[in-house]
Write a structure and sequence with these properties.
The protein is mainly alpha-helical. The chain folds into two domains: 49 residues, Dna Ligase, domain 1; 187 residues, no CATH class. Helices cover 70% and strands 6% of the residues. Strands 2-1-3-4 form a four-stranded antiparallel beta sheet. A hairpin with a 5-residue loop joins strand 1 and strand 2. Helix 3 runs antiparallel to helix 4 and helix 3 crosses helix 5. The two termini are 40 Å apart.
Length: 253
């Protein structure tokens, strides 16, 4: 992995650091996005923001996940702000893929033993539902952003949508392994994980769409209700026409 050095207040190089380290130092206010940095073997010193604008998308996704996990509101703001529109959309897709994996394992654990085919049987339906959720949430976020005249772009909307799916998918995963026949686990999941989606959406509306506090707070229920309604309309049609499965029927989502 390539190493990087930055110039401190006395113009002394400090390092080596990875791009993830530099992003962390920015979040900790040790350096700023304007701090000059240089990669090992490079001859040109550039602002940190220029280096973070072109990271490996997988490293960017992991750094964004860590930031969101540590602080849903501030994390989604700082992580999204450090990504260009294209990379933000790619990170959102990676988040959606991770959510699909959690959903697949959770659904398979919950009903797989009673169904023939196991993971293979649920793979395509779960992928379809996850993709539907991602698109519907992104559209709902875009709608709320336009409604309240916020800023931002579609790529950041997909980033926020992918991030918002992670707590939901995690709850399904935990339920599949621990929640069956255990109401206490189900209640804990609802109380602990559901608010994270709201916090992530609120942080994104504030930091990525640049909405004031009140419009951002109003945007969250609008996004959730709109996205859930769209999923309820589109997902059953796709499942029935693509896989011959009813909603909710044998596919427990």
């Amino acid at each position: 992995m390539k190493s990087y050095y930055y110039l401190d207040s006395e113009n002394e190089p400090q390092g080596p650091h990875t791009l993830r380290d530099l992003a962390g130092l920015v979040r900790q206010n040790v350096i700023t996005m304007e701090t000059m940095a240089c990669g090992e073997g490079d001859t040109e010193w550039r602002p940190v923001k220029a280096l973070l604008a072109e990271p490996n998308v997988w490293a960017a996704a992991w750094a964004a996940f860590c930031a969101i996990a540590s602080s849903p509101v501030q994390g989604v703001q700082s992580a999204g702000a450090n990504l260009d529109d294209k990379t933000a959309a790619q990170v959102g897709l990676i988040f959606a893929a991770a959510s699909a994996l959690c959903l697949l394992l959770g659904v398979n654990q919950a009903v797989g033993e009673a169904e023939k085919g196991g993971l293979t049987k649920f793979l395509l339906p779960v992928a379809t539902v996850t993709a539907t959720c991602l698109v519907c949430f992104a559209l709902a976020i875009t709608l709320a952003r336009k409604l309240f005249r916020g800023q931002g772009a579609l790529g950041k909307d997909f980033f926020l949508a992918g991030a918002a799916l992670l707590p939901v998918a995690a709850s399904v995963l935990v339920f599949g392994f621990l929640g069956q026949g255990n109401p206490a686990v189900v209640l804990t999941l609802i109380l602990a994980l559901a608010p994270l989606t709201y916090l992530i959406l609120y942080g994104g509306c504030r930091g990525l769409s640049n909405l004031p506090e009140q419009p951002a707070a109003l945007s969250v229920p609008i996004i959730v209700v709109t996205a859930c309604w769209l999923v309820k309309v589109v997902a059953p049609w796709l499942l029935e026409n693509l896989y011959g499965q009813k909603w909710p029927g044998k596919f427990p989502l």
